[in-house]
Structures are given as C-alpha cells and as structure tokens.
Write the structure tokens for this entry.
Amino acid sequence: AQSVTQPDIHITVSEGASLELRCNYSYGATPYLFWYVQSPGQGLQLLLKYFSGDTLVQGIKGFEAEFKRSQSSFNLRKPSVHWSDAAEYFCAVGAREYGNKLVFGAGTILRVKS
Amino acid sequence: NAGVTQTPKFQVLKTGQSMTLQCAQDMNHEYMSWYRQDPGMGLRLIHYSVGAGITDQGEVPNGYNVSRSTTEDFPLRLLSAAPSQTSVYFCASSTGTFGSNQPQHFGDGTRLSIL
C-alpha cells in the first residue's frame, strides 16, 4: 500500500534562515506529489505540485520542491523563512494506479523564531 | 468566490446523537471528498464521490454515510456519534481524480466534539 512519511513532527528555524521539510513516499508507480500548508484554524492551501517534467518545481510564497525518484523524496525548501510561514505543512501523494485515493503524511509543524 | 463551504464550523454532540456535516462547492467540480484530521495522523480519507449519484469508501468509512444528489453538495452523516469521531473534518473538491495531477480545494473545516 502507498504511504507517505514526514520524518520531522516539529521544526524550528530562525526568521531569515533557510528551510527544508522532508517527505518520503512509498509507491509502485510514478506518483503525483503535492505540498499543502495549513494555518491554525484554516483549511489546507496548495503550495505546489509535481506530476511530470522538471523535477524542481516552484510554488507560491517563495517555496520550491525537488522530486528525486532515486530517493523517493519530495522535499520542500525555502531560502529565507518569514514569521508568517509558521504553520503545519503536509506532503500528499496520489497515483492513477491507486484510483481515487490521495494519501497524506502526518504533517510537520514549523515554528519561526525571531 | 466562495469555493468550498462547510457548515457548521463547530459542533458538540452527545454520544449516540446523529448529525449531518454540510459541504457545498460552487466550482462545478466533479470530485468531492471528506477527510478527518487527527493529531499526528495527517488527513485520512473517509468517503469520496466522483460525480452526482456515485460515492465510494475511503480509508476510514465506518460510522459515516454520504450521498451525492447534486454536483454542488456532498453531506457527511454521522448516524450514531461516538467519542472516537471527535476530530476536525475537511471537505475537498477537485476537477480531476485524486490520483491525478489536479489539486484539491479544501474548506475551512468543521471541528466536532463528541462527549
């Protein structure tokens, strides 16, 4: 069965520092990959997605992610974190071969210290 | 531009009570789904629908019913609420299947407590 792992439950970074959130997936086929962000009390907002082509994808709010097939990873990065980036981030994976199912990781809570 | 609207935003129930969580979207999306979010577990799919009149079970369907009589609405029913159903519930919609490259649009959630 497909699975998504976000190894870090919490991450704390200083404002202005760089950020990398990890996501690893287990799929037997080419996946479609997403990163969502959730601010407290809000729904999920799509940051970026990958389904084919260039393995480095750009998203909103200055985020980017790189798909590495050999490592089954889709890590999210940002060069300089802002205090407003504090939120919970979810990696999600889908694949046509697994039907209408989107699998989410457990999430990573980002704290930004000033 | 409403997007996905969920009502109510908060609800407290007693064990054994029934209720319906409402979800409506105005984007003419064929695909709609319900998730529950619990701490440390991410989002888990409860039920989904690929169009009016068509529904199917997700990862955690027990204790929940759904129906899809129109494209716009996808209500989630709890038949006999249990404390284990205390959670935050999210409705989502998209133009494509969940196993596709189309992202899902989420509502703001319904926070449900079962006493």
Summary: The mean pLDDT of chain A is 90. Chain A touches chain B at residues 4, 6, 9, 32, 34, 36, 41-46, 49, 51-52, 90, 92, 94-102, 104-107 (CB under 8 Å).
